[in-house]
Structure formats: C-alpha cells, structure tokens
Amino acid sequence: MRPLETLTESQDERLLQVRLACPDITRACDLARAFADLVRHRRGYLLQEWIRQAEQEHRTP
Predict the structure, then answer these.
(1) What is the pLDDT of residues 19-51, one digit of tens each?
(2) CA 61, CA 57: separation in Å to the nearest integer?
(3) For residue 31, what are the contacts with CB-CB under 8 A and spacing of at least 6?
(4) Does 60 have pLDDT greater than 70?
(5) Those residues with Cβ within 8 angstroms of residue 26's Cβ, 6 or more apart along the chain or in another chain
(6) DSSP output for the chain
C-alpha cells in the first residue's frame, strides 16, 4: 500500500489493469488506501467514518 506516487510506471499500469478488471479489488484497494492514509497522517478521529464506509461497501454488490 505504498503511496501511488512511489509506484513505477509499470506498477501503476498493472494496478490500473487489475482495478479495471475487478470492481471488488477496486473497492478493497480504495478502502485500504483510505485506511493507510488515516494511519499515516494520524487521523484517528476519522476512523468511525471509515468503518461506516467499509460496512457500506461490504453490502454493495
């Protein structure tokens, strides 16, 4: 879950291909990146909102 700006061009392209191929991976990746951002920037006060969003995403087909 490295920051996107640290990915090589080939890694960025591969990630895009995987995300386009599988909406579930896209949702999981977005949630994981949001969580990593909370931790990296010490935004624990946003954790409840992240949990709500994660639960909502889990219910979305």
Answers:
(1) 999 999 999 999 999 999 999 999 999 999 999
(2) 8
(3) 50, 53, 54, 57
(4) no
(5) 19, 20
(6) ---GGGS-HHHHHHHHHHHHH-HHHHHHHHHHHHHHHHHHTT-GGGHHHHHHHHHHHHH--
Whole-number CA gyration radius for the chain: 13
Q: How far apart are CA 14 and CA 10, in angstroms?
A: 6
Q: What is the distance, to the nearest Å, from the Cα of residue 40 to the centroid of all Cα atoms in its chain?
A: 13
Place of tokens 């700006």: 5
Q: Taking the CB of residue 26, how many other CB atoms lie within 10 A of it? A: 14
